[in-house]
Amino acid sequence: MKSFFRVSDIGDLRLALDEAAQVKANPLGWQNLGRGKTIILIFFNSSLRTRLSSQKAALNLGMNPIVLDIGKDSWKLETEMGVVMDGDKPEHLREAVPVIGSYCDIIGVRSFAGLTDRQADYGENILRQFVEYSGKPVISLESATVHPCQAFADLITIEEHRTSPRPKVVMTWAPHPKALPQAVPNSFAEWMNAADVDFVITHPHGYELDPEFVGGAAVEYDQMKAFEGADFVYAKNWSSVESYGQVLSMDRSWTVGRAQMEVTNNAFFMHCLPVRRNMIVTDEVIDSPRSLVIEEAANRVVSAQVVMKRMLESL
Ligand code: CP
Prior knowledge:
Layout: E1 3-4, H1 13-25, E2 38-43, H2 49-60, E3 64-69, E4 77-78, E5 91-92, H3 93-102, E6 106-110, H4 118-122, H5 125-134, E7 138-140, H6 148-161, E8 168-173, H7 183-194, E9 198-202, H8 211-214, E10 218-220, H9 223-227, E11 232-236, H10 258-262, E12 268-270, H11 283-286, H12 293-313
Parallel strand pairs: 1-7, 2-3, 2-6, 4-5, 6-7, 8-9, 8-11, 9-10, 11-12
């Protein structure tokens, strides 16, 4: 595996889920695979789960993980080509990326969307430069438009809890005080469309996601109708794609609470975390026995380990 951004990079999902189950049952079974190898994890933005689960996955495989917070542990990096570098960024990605590549075997990059220029964000400028100039396999640890390690962990979690061959999975927009990127819903939609589930997306008008990621999913603007008979409810906020990066609504009737969950098929509640309680979901729902949020986070180690294992196997 040369890169991990899109669901197509993982290939057959059934094989990937079987491999995830093997890795979860025997996490230290491939300790020799990563011996003498190094992964550098680059963070342009904050993280709790991605940072820790990626390091844990690398250690399980016998690799040496090195974590770098850009601008805190390193120089601030210029990411645009052709600029006169007379500001506060003393180094350009064009030099920094090949230097980083020379120190490691695999690179992971977290680089959120700026949410001001849709074309630039959807061009994945930073991730693309890591692919072009590092000469090493690159993992998106949530880039401007995708969060594949999260979506893979979410699919593993659904696989572990589904009780029917084709469960109904509903992804709902929920309110949030700040503008958030579309990376998590984009990847979740892409992965659910590729999985054996009945997938529905629900959101207020104005929050339509990029059609490339929505694919053939059903879109239902009535949240209660969408929730009927759901086996899994996946809540997430995202900012508008059309009115790019804007918060159009803070309507708390979309907060996932008891009323919505009561029309489901005793659904499991899912969220990638971090979550704003009583904005995205009520305390009652997230603290209920049907909440899978901690299991999803735990499965981030499994998804990262499968991806790193495949990359090590193809070095
Ligand atoms: N879900 C997720 O990616 O969490 P962090 O932002 O804490 O890494």
